[in-house]
Design brief:
The protein is α/β, with parallel strands linked by helices. It has 29 helices and 11 strands.
């Protein structure tokens, strides 16, 4: 008899050629081999395919036992002896000799509920027969010396631009001819999980592929089910429930709370979300590693410790969508969802504050990278409906802390949308709301929307006066100068900027300080008075808060380009404009880059033609919107300008 006589013919194994070859090679070595991977990834199927091929000339050479069939740790040895057909009272040592003489391969399938017992059994068998071939499938390794672990990941959805991956091939085999984009959409929603793909394909007798793709996008795949030889494979919900039952109570709480994180995360953010009276902060890191070992979490980046320094990048994990949906259901059942969501927003507020301090201090590129790394979480923290007024203030604090992302890196429209929505939810007159009013008005001014900017700045002025916020009054003057520049009202712009530039900021971490007002003043004066413009540019650099302020540096260089262009040295203007572009690309802002490129092109044409400055055409200012308009893209999704 073969080991799988009751399981029917072997289904086709798609997309596992490399793993098939690896497993076949490992069978030639005297060491236990463990196939690991998340629920529904196809561990047992691959083991069966390789072992049937490996023993094709020796029928019955695979001795298989599955550990989910109600066995206990004490029952395991006797069950294995019965499967081998050995008479009582045989021993495990007799079994090892039996397998050796018949050149049999032992397969311990689905070992998760009896992992420790299986490890002890394998250790005992190998002590008797070190050359015995043993294959194990489980969601985590046995942890034995010499164990060879082959980890299976979900199937790739695509292999490159326009190339369908094995996940699409597997779905297409179930659906027949179909639109490739719909197949890809379904497989992406299912994250390449073979079990999920099979269960979803069964739904196509009652809905179209496009309807399936839409439902998966909204609802996920947990609710689909179908017939299966094992109960835990009838649905993804059942598969995750089986793994969840094997976790410790603490690991279950961590799994459930991690479900509020929509993207990949590091241990710090996981600690923010998971730590409470029943989950100590010191226990979270170990829980993450246990969930990773159990194939619940994916590790998207291993820890990168800098050589000799003891510091470096922390690991980053990801909870796949099906495991996340399952955990979210458990979180709601326990009534812990509101607490986890509140802690999540508080953690994101701390991340945004760190990014703001980094922007004004140690490095603007680091701040941009931090925001990009955490974009999924910051987006969710800004857009998820607040739980109450206090929670709304937490979301508003995030939006205000990210002022540099909106104002300096070119995401003005996104910032305005978030601020408009959150200001309507946070009506209490606080210093935070005053800053939010100014920021919303400043972003509207940058977009040349005076009808929106002026009422917001008027409200911000009243709040700043009430809170005796002189920094806020200076920032308001700076914003009014931007509006004046759009109106070509240089006189008003100069007055406002001189007022803002003379102010000494008490809070150097928020908003464009005096240095930026000096730089903008240099731009406003550039066509009128070269001496005063150069003096303003010099004051801007002298009053900088940090040497790595690329936002300020690019603005000063742009001012120098305008000065040289207006007063007789186009070649110097070209050099300054080129340097301004290089500095600005380090932090972004497509609007500035388009304007500077337009001016640079005009300057180059003038230099080639050896035209005097007055022949180079009208002024092209950085605040003038170019033909490239990417405002409709969602938060943080816009690609940065190419070099």
């Amino acid at each position: 008899m073969t080991a799988w006589v009751d399981d029917g013919p072997l289904p086709g194994v798609v997309g596992r050629a490399a793993e098939h070859e690896q497993l076949a090679g490992l069978l030639d070595r005297a060491a236990p081999v463990t196939l690991t991977g998340p629920a529904g990834v196809g561990k047992s199927l691959l083991a069966r395919a390789v072992l049937e091929e490996h023993t094709a000339d020796r029928p019955g050479a695979v001795l298989r036992i599955t550990c989910w069939d109600g066995l206990t740790s004490d029952d395991l040895p006797d069950a294995l002896l019965r499967t081998a057909g050995l008479p009582a009272p045989s021993t495990v040592e007799d079994l090892a000799g039996h397998c050796r003489t018949r050149r049999m391969i032992l397969l311990l399938d689905d070992c998760d509920p009896l992992l420790d017992a299986c490890a002890a059994l394998v250790r005992r068998l190998l002590r008797t027969e070190p050359a015995l071939r043993i294959v194990v499938t489980a969601r985590r390794p046995l942890g034995l010396p010499g164990e060879r672990v082959l980890a299976l990941a979900p199937l790739p959805v695509t292999l490159g631009e326009g190339i369908a991956g094995p996940a699409v091939e597997l779905l297409a085999a179930r659906t027949g001819p179909a639109a490739p984009e719909l197949l890809v959409a379904v497989c992406r929603a299912l994250e390449g999980c073979p079990l999920a793909i099979g269960l979803a394909a069964r739904q196509l007798d009652r809905m179209t592929l496009s309807q399936l793709a839409a439902r998966l996008d909204l609802e996920g795949s947990l609710h689909y089910s179908g017939p299966s030889p094992t109960t835990r494979h009838t649905s993804l919900h059942a598969a995750h429930a089986a793994g969840y039952a094997l976790c410790s109570p603490l690991d279950r709480r961590v799994w459930a709370r991690l479900s509020v994180l929509p993207g990949d995360f590091d241990p710090w953010l996981a600690g923010c979300v998971c730590t409470s009276s029943d989950v100590p902060a010191s226990a979270v890191d170990a829980a993450l590693e246990r969930l990773r070992a159990a194939s619940v979490l994916e590790c998207v980046r291993d820890a990168d410790v800098a050589s000799g320094s003891g510091t470096g990048l922390p690991p980053r994990y990801r909870l796949p969508r099906a495991a996340r949906d399952f955990g979210r259901d458990r979180l709601r059942e326990t009534g812990d969802e509101a607490g986890a969501l509140r802690r999540f927003r508080q953690g994101c507020a701390a991340l945004a504050a760190e990014a703001q301090i980094t922007w004004q201090g140690t490095g603007q590129q680091l701040a941009v990278r931090l925001v990009e790394d955490e974009q999924h979480h910051l987006d969710a923290a800004l857009t998820r409906p607040p739980l109450d007024a206090e929670d709304a203030l937490g979301a508003l604090e995030i939006a205000v802390s990210l002022w540099f992302q909106w104002a300096a890196c070119g995401f003005r429209r996104e910032g305005r949308a978030h601020l408009d929505r959150l200001l309507a939810l946070a009506q209490e007159d606080t210093a935070l709301r005053a800053r939010a009013l100014w920021l919303a008005g400043y972003l509207a001014a940058q977009e040349n929307a005076p009808a929106d900017a002026e009422p917001l700045l008027a409200q911000a002025w009243k709040a700043a006066v009430m809170h005796a916020d002189t920094d806020g009054l200076a920032r308001i003057a700076h914003a009014h100068a931007v509006l004046a520049l759009y109106r070509e009202d240089t006189t008003t712009a100069v007055v406002c900027l001189e007022e803002a530039a003379r102010h000494t900021s008490r809070d150097t971490w928020f908003g464009p300080g005096p240095a930026h007002s000096w730089a903008l003043l240099a731009i406003a004066l550039a066509p009128l008075d070269a001496g005063r413009a150069r003096a303003a540019a010099r004051r801007a650099w002298e009053s900088r808060h940090a040497d790595c302020d690329f936002w300020l540096h690019s603005t000063i260089l742009y001012a120098h380009a305008l000065i040289e262009r207006a007063h007789g040295d186009p070649a110097a203007a070209v050099r300054a404009c080129r340097k301004a572009l290089v500095a600005k690309k380090l932090v972004g802002d497509p609007l500035f880059i388009v304007g500077a490129r337009t001016m640079l092109a005009a300057l180059r044409r003038g230099v080639r033609a050896d035209a005097p400055a007055r022949m180079l055409g009208g002024e092209v200012r950085w605040w003038r919107r170019g033909t490239s308009d990417s405002r409709a893209q969602p938060f943080f999704s816009r690609l940065r300008a190419e070099p």
